[in-house]
Amino acid sequence: MPGGRLTSEDRQHIAAGLAEGLGYAEIGRRLGRPASTIMREVTRNGGPDGYGADRAHEATRHRARRHGQARPPAPPAPDGGHGRDPRAVEDFTESFIALLVQQGMPRMEARVLACLYVTDSGALTAAELVQRLRVSPASVSHAVAYLEQQGMLRRERVPGTRRERYVIDDEIWVRSILASLRMNEALAAASQRGAEILGATTPAGSRFESSAELLVLVSEAFRQVIEEWRKNQAARSARHPDPQATMG
What we know:
There is one protein chain. The chain is mainly alpha-helical and 248 residues long. The chain is built from 11 helices and 3 strands; from the N terminus they run αααααααβααββαα. Strands 1-3-2 form a 3-stranded antiparallel β-sheet. α1 packs across α5 and α2 (24-31) crosses α3 (35-44).
């Protein structure tokens, strides 16, 4: 991290920047830090509305003491011989986790998803997740159940064993978007029904009718985008076959 660890003075500047309504990028620019560092700092310590410099500094010192007394750091994820910078991968992974948390995903679930996402295979067993994340098997089990329910990963049997591994693929966000679209379409149908019951010429009915039109357009647009994306994926796969597909 450029400039070393955040100091108490740095955190005072972050708090002041948030109070001014500045974005992470601008605060980071003023401190000479990456925006991802500022995002992680704020997300870990109450979010934009609850961040306090003194409280954040004390919480960080407490975490450092606790980690120093606990288990050793997790081993770096193997890069598969691609020559990646382990520190850059680690920093990116942490910023990706922070982004998922900011979007509303529980932190442990975000850590499991990110751990899978940065692997070339996109597949890890429960034991591998426990080892990489340095958490309990129960924590992994609960996180996997949540992600599976959201359609963000699937289970498959490890060939030749009774063990399961957890897998993500290129359609992870497609399934998430489709789940949102189902809710969007339910809201559109309810809005159309509201317009009929309240009367489209009345202010309340007109409001529902306008909402229904917007929601229908959103659904149609997203479905067209997904269809186009799948066509592009198929064309890319034809040009560049995935070597993983030929492996057992």
